[in-house]
Every structure is written in C-alpha cells, then in structure tokens.
Amino acid sequence: MYDSNIQLANGYTIEERLAQFTEHECHMHDALEISVPLDNAMKYPLGNEMYCASPGDVFLLRPFEPHWNLIQEEGRPGRWVMLLFFPSIVGQVPNGYSLLTPFYTKDISPLIPAASPHAMNVHRLVLAAMEERRTALPGWELQHYSLLIQILVHIHRYFMEQMVENSVDTAAFSGIIEAVEYMMEHWSEEIDMDALIGRSQLKKTWFYTKFKAITGLTPLAFTVRLRLQYASQQLRATNHSVTDIALSCGFGSSSYFNKVFREFRGMTPGEFRKQL
C-alpha cells in the first residue's frame, strides 16, 4: 500500500497530472499532499469515506492516510495539480510549522470548496507556480517556493476560520494546536509530556482526550510518525547510515528504528533504501 518511489529533490514538487477512470488500490505515503482538480470532477477515496471534488476545489491528503484519486466520469480524463512536500520545507519560515497543522488534524473536512476565497487563491497560485516552472525565468525556483508558502498560508487560514464557524472548543483546540506545533518543531528531541501539557493549559486527562480527538493519534504515536517522515526523507536523500539517521531522528537506537519502520512499511530501512 505504501508509495515508496517518492523522490522530492528539494523537499517538494508542484506538477500537473492526468487522472483516469481507473479503479486503483489506495496507497499512502509519508509526504503531505495537496490536490487541485483543473477540469472535470474527481473522486477521492480516503479511508472509509468517498469525497467528490469539482474543478477549483482543493483537497488535502494527510500523511499515512490511505487514499487515491480518479475522475468521476468514464471517458473524460481530468487534469489536476499535485503538490507533494515534506514538513521540513517550512523549517526556515517564521512560525512555519503552524502552516502544517491542517495536515495533522481531523476535525475539519479535507475538502476546501472552490467557492471559498481561499480555494480561489490556491487555484490562482498553483497555476502561477506551474507557469514559473514552465518559463524557468531567472529566480523561478525562489518564486516557486514562495508560491508554495502562500498556498499553505491560505489553507491554514481556511482551516482556522472553519474551526470558529463550526463552534469547535476554541480553548481546547488552541491548546492542542500549540502542542502540535511544538512537537513539529522539536520532533527529534525528547518531549517532556508534563511540560507539553503545561503549554496547552489543559488538564492532563482532557489533554490526552482532545489530542486523540483532534489528531487521531496519541502524543507518542504522533511523535513517532513525525520522526518517520524525517527519517524516510533522509533515507531517500542522503547516504547517512541507518544508525546515524535513527539517532538524528530521535529514535534512540537503530534496533528501535528498524522495529518501528518495519511496523509501518513492512520492511527495514535498509530494504526501503534498496528499493529506491
């Protein structure tokens, strides 16, 4: 089920794809993904749910979630833009990790309707990014990256607005998001759970309950998945040893890293690297 052939030289890609009317086994990967249909309606099987998206809609595909996309009507292939990236791309952006919270929360639908001003802006920005790549004028790589950050800003703003409109428990949500952002920024470090709960300003039991409700994971499982994302990226992009990657990603030992990696991917880090 895993897609292990993802190669993102700069940590991200923005490219046009063609969707066919072909059933396909769902796959999942450790990258974050944004899908924007350009023409013809598309279907997105996501876990046990089926979403339908029209041109101009924006769809978020969260890491480690089984998914696929295909057109709704046979004989009418649909163009769409795929934005695929690793969380490390926002590491140097001020408060950059806050832009990724929509990809790690479950309370809001992953579908942003085309009528939303934020979806309109995302659609405009992805087309501009495609044009930058096509023309390849001087400095296009920097402009390309800038457009990606702007896209993430609009998605983040949309999700924050939805939290207010849906009357989500603002205090609890803000506390969990504060914790999530801290964990994303300090993913390789040993997390002091008492200090993390203190940052959220929530009672301990309520913190664990809301964390699981909002992210779908326990804090420990959330941390492990973050570390797996970074470790997988290093396995793809570097020649560092498995032991060095395990230690740099906070796993403590190569044996524990091997165990966790195998549980998620059905193979060891070394076997994964050989497949690439």
Question: Care to describe what's here?
Answer:
- With 276 residues, this protein is an alpha+beta fold.
- The protein has two domains: 154 residues, Regulatory protein AraC (Jelly Rolls, Sandwich); 107 residues, Orthogonal Bundle (Arc Repressor Mutant, subunit A), CATH 1.10.10.
- Helices cover 46% and strands 14% of the residues.
- It contains nine helices and eight strands.
- Strands 1-7-2-5-8 form a five-stranded antiparallel β-sheet, with helices on one face. A three-stranded antiparallel β-sheet has the order 4-3-6, with no helix packed on it.
- The chain is globular and about 50 Å long.
Radius of gyration: 19 Å
CATH homologous superfamily (4th level) name of the largest domain:
Regulatory protein AraC
Global outline: globular
Low-confidence stretches: none
What is the helical fraction, as a range of percent?
Answer: 40-55%
InterPro entries: AraC-bd (IPR003313), Homeodomain-like_sf (IPR009057), HTH-like (IPR037923), HTH_AraC (IPR018060), HTH_AraC-typ_CS (IPR018062), Tscrpt_reg_AraC-type_HTH (IPR020449)
Organism: Paenibacillus nasutitermitis
GO molecular function, one term: DNA-binding transcription factor activity
Protein name: HTH araC/xylS-type domain-containing protein
